[in-house]
Specification:
- This protein has about 250 residues and is an alpha/beta fold.
- The protein has one domain (about 1-245).
- The protein is built from 10 helices and 10 strands.
- It has helices at about 30-45, 50-55, 60-70, 80, 85-90, 100-105, 140-155, 165-170, 200-210, 220-230; strands spanning about 1-5, 75-80, 110, 115-120, 125, 160, 180-185, 190-195, 235, 240-245.
- Strands 1, 3, 4, 6, 7, 8, 9 and 10 form an 8-stranded mixed beta sheet that branches. Strands 2-5 form a two-stranded antiparallel ribbon.
- β9 (about 235) and β10 (about 240-245) form a beta hairpin.
- α6 (about 100-105) packs across α9.
Length: about 250
Amino acid sequence: MLVLLPPSETKADGGDGGPLDLGALSFPELNPLRRKLIDALVDLSADVPASLAALGLSERQQDEVARNGRLWTAPTTPALRRYTGVLYDALDAGSFRKSELARAERRLAVASALFGVVRAGDPIPAYRLSGGSGVPGFGTLRSLWRPVLEPVLAEVGELVVDLRSGTYAALARVPGAVTVRVVTEDAAGRRKTVSHHNKAYKGKLAAALATSRATPSTVDGVVSVAVKAGISVERTGEHELELVTGA
């Protein structure tokens, strides 16, 4: 089972790993495009106003541009520690036991506008590039990643649980992947999509799937793991699930 997570705009600083080595990352087929994008961001960082405009940043976020300038030299840390924010707080990888972390590193992967997709243990530097950004001279990230990333994800050969947000799901389709919609249910049984706490609930589901001793290979297996973890999940289609929260 591979659980695809969205990335986060915020990234932890520093790391105790050496500089970025593309050869140390999973899915090496993506390395040629990874290298082109990294080089482009490093070059772009020399022009701060152009970087701010391309990345959709404010003047107060110039440190993000500086991060991109150090992509080849900055320290690295495993992806699961690099990404921060609501989903990763709920995932709470820091609380995993050694055996759970080992399972999580096999099962979790993070979508990335810069790297395409990385596994949880892959060592990466801090960077700034979101799925909706554009890199001058490269067109849209969707047009770049789709023809390269879709064949790679199609060859995963195991059940894929897709928890990516729409922006990152657009970078590569994964036919047959299990998708999850977070909904709230009122006293009358009416359901509506949850937006504000969506990431937190997906983080909890990801934690359950990542650490479970069972390895689900079917949609029903995913439901079973979630329910055992106290998460209300229902199957609503061949590959669709709804995670039901309280009103």
